[in-house]
Automatic annotation (TrEMBL):
It is a multi-pass membrane protein. This is Lens intrinsic membrane protein 2.1. Belongs to the PMP-22/EMP/MP20 family. Gene3D superfamilies: 1.20.140.150. Its main location: membrane. It comes from Cyprinus carpio. One of its GO terms (molecular function) is structural constituent of eye lens. The chain crosses the membrane at residues 66-87, 99-119, 139-161. The lineage of its organism: Eukaryota, Metazoa, Chordata, Craniata, Vertebrata. InterPro entries: LMIP, PMP-22/EMP/MP20-like, PMP22/EMP/MP20/Claudin, PMP22_EMP_MP20.
Length: 174
């Protein structure tokens, strides 16, 4: 059980750090305009000499931002509850912390980051793919998809730990 809990905590910790980096950085997309390479993130866009804050309230940016922030919060709570389960913090006796960490990681955090990445991907491909030829997704975007995978696997590890805790194998087979 502890190896699964450790794997879940590791994946959740790395996934949460990658979510923070992906959400905060400005390299979700790079494109070329007037022979200059520019890049943009969720919060601002940058030209060769200066960066500017997104002032337009575009629905897909707002949705992506909101889902990324919600997934960060859920992942952080999943890590805290996972640590409490790992060290047997017993202030909540009837509250199964392993199951709660599994739900937060697998269902909530993974779902929200998947929604954020899917919304951004779909709108970007449909908009930029039809209008501009010289653009590409960049490293912040790729890190966001890696965090989807890590939050998914942390939930799977927590689920395995919960199943082992719920149904332990008997040491005396008969």
């Amino acid at each position: 059980m502890y190896s699964f809990m450790g794997g879940g905590l590791f994946c959740a910790g790395v996934g949460n750090r990658l979510l923070i980096v992906s959400t905060a950085t400005d390299y979700w997309m790079q494109y070329r305009l007037s022979n200059n390479y520019m890049h943009q993130g969720l919060w601002r866009y940058c030209m060769p000499a200066k960066c500017f804050t997104h002032t337009d309230s575009i629905a897909y940016w707002d949705a992506t931002r909101a889902f990324m922030i919600l997934s960060l919060l859920a992942c952080f709570l999943g890590i805290i509850i996972g640590i409490m389960a790992f060290i047997h913090y017993s202030s909540f006796d009837r509250f199964d912390k392993t199951f709660a960490a599994e739900c937060l990681q697998l269902v909530v955090a993974c779902f929200f980051v998947f929604l954020a990445m899917s919304v951004y991907t779909g709108v970007t491909i449909n908009y930029y793919g039809k209008r501009y030829g010289n653009w590409r997704f960049s490293w912040s975007y790729i890190i966001g998809w890696v965090s989807v995978v890590l939050t998914f696997f942390s939930g799977i590890f927590y689920m395995c730990a919960y199943r082992m805790h719920e149904c332990p194998r008997s040491s005396n087979p008969q």
